[in-house]
Amino acid sequence: MKAFKAEATEFTPKIYFDPDNLPFIIAGVSRPENANEFYEPVIDWLRLYKENPLIETDIDFQFDYFNTSSLKYFLIILSQFKEIVDSGKKVRISWYYDEEDDSMLEAGRNLEELSELNFKFRISE
For the chain, percent helix, then strand, then coil, each to nearest 5? Predict the structure, then answer.
């Protein structure tokens, strides 16, 4: 399967989903002008990936900032990973946050609860 890659911009995160090079990564700032337009291709790629996922998939979330419209799409992305888990495969999610950024840690905890997935919380270096 061909990798999905999007370079980071001032408004959008870097996305690197390559089954040959784990972990999958979403990193940076997420405040796209049109969240649907930006995230729909990512979700479409994940829908194809979940048809034949790896036995184990690692994904790193490394946000500096995201807005509330992005949050909806994170939940959709996580729902795709939940379906992979439900099919018997492993998904390891790492949520990185700055040690002094309690709100980013709390956002990760909320996403973990809402998605019914297990996150590993890691302090950004």
Answer: 40, 30, 30
How far apart CA 115 and CA 8 sit, in angstroms, is: 25
Residue 125 has pLDDT above 90, yes or no: no
Domain 4-123 has CATH 3.30.1370: no
Query: If DSSP codes are grouped into helix, strand and coil, which group holds residue 65?
Result: strand
Cα distance between residue 66 and residue 32, in whole Å: 9
Q: Residues 49, 68, 29, 102: is their CA dihedral positive or negative?
A: negative
| Predicted local distance difference test score (pLDDT) of residue 85 | 98
The structural domains of the chain, with segments of one domain joined by +, span 4-123
